[in-house]
Amino acid sequence: MLGNFTYHNPTKLYFGDGALGHLKEELKKYGKNVLLVYGGGSIKKNSLYDEIVDILKESGKVWAEVSGVMPNPTLEKLYEGIETARKNKTEFILAVGGGSVCDFSKAVSVSVNCKEDPWDKYFLRFEEPECDIIPVGCVLTMAGTGSEMNAGSVISNHKEHLKIGHVFGEEVMPKFSILNPVYTMTLPEYQMKAGIYDIMNHICEQYFSGDDDNTSDYISEGLMRGLVNSSRIAVKDPQNYEARSNIMWTATWALNTLVAMGKSTDWMVHMLGQAVGAYTDATHGMTLAAVSLPYYRYIMPYGVKKFARFATEVWKISPEGKTEEQLAKEGIEALESWMKEIGLVMNITDLGATTDMIEGIADATIILEGGYKILNRDEVVKILKDSL
Amino acid sequence: MLGNFTYHNPTKLYFGDGALGHLKEELKKYGKNVLLVYGGGSIKKNSLYDEIVDILKESGKVWAEVSGVMPNPTLEKLYEGIETARKNKTEFILAVGGGSVCDFSKAVSVSVNCKEDPWDKYFLRFEEPECDIIPVGCVLTMAGTGSEMNAGSVISNHKEHLKIGHVFGEEVMPKFSILNPVYTMTLPEYQMKAGIYDIMNHICEQYFSGDDDNTSDYISEGLMRGLVNSSRIAVKDPQNYEARSNIMWTATWALNTLVAMGKSTDWMVHMLGQAVGAYTDATHGMTLAAVSLPYYRYIMPYGVKKFARFATEVWKISPEGKTEEQLAKEGIEALESWMKEIGLVMNITDLGATTDMIEGIADATIILEGGYKILNRDEVVKILKDSL
Q1: CA distances from B210 to B222, B258, B262, B263 (A)
Q2: ipTM of the predicted structure?
C-alpha cells in the first residue's frame, strides 16, 4: 500500500549530446563567483574542461577551482573545498564529474556558511543545514549514483574508518544537471560496470522491502528490465549511444526519490558496501556487488515472496511447477549470472579486504531496519565473511 | 534511442489520506485573493468543500467561487471564469475536482492577464502565454487525466464542434497538488472506470510510437502492468485503498511528461476521442475506449514489433511458436478482454454517436504524425465507422 508522502524534485535536467549548450542560460541565474569542482583531471584529457572554461568566460564569471576530488571524497578534501569556497566568496558551485564530484559539491554547499564542523553535524548527527546553502549545478560524466537529481552526499573519514551518507532535503538538490551520455563513453570499462551495478543495487535496495503491492515496485521492475538489456549491449559495445543513454537515464530515476515513494526501503547492501569502502577505498559499485549475493541469500527466507516476484517479473523465469522458494532462489541465481556476465567483482577479497579487517568493517557497518530481516552484529560478520 | 530533451517538473505533490493537511502551508506562499474552482457540487455532498473553506478562512484568504465546471469544460465557462477572476483580482486559483477542473483552472490562469481571446490564441494558434500567469494549486478528487502534474488543458467549443488540448510550458503546471485516494472512492463506478482507461491510454499513446529501445518504454510497461493489476482489484472492490492509491499514483506518472522523454509519441486515439467528445459530450475516458481497438487494429501492421512486445511484456503472453503478427494480435486481444472485464464502453454508438455524425467528427479530428501510420481523412472515417 502506498503510504503518505511528499514528492518534489525541482532539479532541471538537460539530456542528450547537445546538453552542454544549456549551461550558459543556467549560469545567468547565479552570482559571478563560481567554484569549479572536478576529479582526477580526465576532463582535461578530453575537451570538456576547455569547453566549460570557455562558457564560464563568455558568461563573465570569475572562478576558483577544486580539483582532484577522489572517487570516495574524504573529509580532508571537504575542508579544502570549504576553505577555497570561503576565500573566493563562492556564489555558485559547478560540479563536473561523476557522483563523487556531485556528492562532494553538495557537501561543500551546505558547509561554507555553517559554523559547526560539517562531519559532526551532517554525517554523525544527521542534522539539517540551517545556514544559507550555495546552489549547485552538475555536468555529469559518469552514470551510476543518481547524485545529479537527489540530495544525497557520501563522505569518507579515513581516520575514523567511516564512510557515511546523508540524504538532505530538496534544497540541497542540484538546481540543474547536464547529462550527456557521450561523456560516459570515455570511462574505463571498470567504472562503467561499477556504475551499472550501483544503479541495479539502488533499485534493489528500494524493491526488496515490504510485502505490499505498489506502483513503485512496478516502475522498479521496468527500470531493472531495461537496465539488464542495456547493460548487456554496453558491455559488448561501450560506444553504443542507445545503450549508454538508457543507462544514464535509468541511473537518474533509480535514485531520485521516485521509486521509494510510499514504500519502505532497505539500504543494507549500501551500509555493508560503504563499510568495506571505508577500509579498502574500493570503487563504490564494486563494493556493493561484492557483498550483495551473500546478503540477499541470507535474507531471502524472510522475504521469499518478493524474491519470487523478482524472478518472474525481472528475469522472466517461468513459475510453472515451482515453489516460491525455488523461484526466489532462481531469481538470485539469475542476478548472479548477469553480474558475472557483465564482469563485476564478486567478492571483497578482490577489493583488498582481508579476514583481519572483518571485525572493523562490521563495526563500521550502520545497521538499518527496512529490510526483510534486521541484522544483528553476528549476522553482519557472517555476511562479510561469506563475501570474502 | 533517447533523443535530446529537457526534463523539469516543479509540481510538489502531497499524497495520502492526510494530504489536505498541507494546504495551509502552501496557501501561505500566495496572495490573499483566491479563486475557488470546482465542479458539479459533489464536494459539497461530502465534507471536502467545508474543510477547504475552513482552511481558506484560517489562512485569512478572501475567495470568489466558480462552480459547475463541467466534465468537458466549455469556452463559455472559461469566459465566465476569466471574468470572475478579473473582478475579484484573483492572485491564486485553487482547483478542487478532477482533470476537468484542473484543466479549466490552468486555462483561466493563462487568460486573466491576456488581452487576446484565449480560444484563438491558445487553442487554435497554439501560442504560448506572454502575460503574467496566475499560480494554480489542485486538490484532486478523480484519478485519470494527470492534469495535477502537467501543463495540459483541454477546452470544448460546442459552437464550432471542437475539443482541443494545449500542452503549455512548465510555468503553467500546478505549483502543488494534493492527492488523497480516499476522495476518489466516492466517485460513481462509471467515472472510475473511465479514469482507469484514460490512464491506460495515456501510456499507450506514448508507448505505441517509434521502434527504438529506450528506458521510457520499460517504465511504461511497469506502469501498465501495475495498472492492470490494481484496476482488477478496484473494479471488484472500489473501497480498496491499496488499489485506488496505486491507480491515482499511476495516473500522475502516466502523463506528467516522464514517459515521453526522449521518444516519439502518437496521441491519435486522443484526437479521435476528443472529436467524438466534441459531438457527444461523452465522458473523456470512454470516448478513448470506444475508438481505441479499431485504431490499434488498423495501425498494427505498421508497428507489429511494438505490438508484439506489448503482448509479451505487458500481458505476459508466451512468444513460443508464434510469429510477431500472431503475438501482436494476441496483445490487442488481451487489451480488449481486459477492457471488457473492467466494463468500459466499447463503441461510440453507446456514447450517442450516429452514422450521420461521422463526417463531422472526422472534420473535427486533428491528424497528428507520431504514430506507426499517419492517417488520411478516409482512414479516420473508416476507423470512426468501425467504432460505431
Answers
A1: 18, 16, 11, 7
A2: 0.96
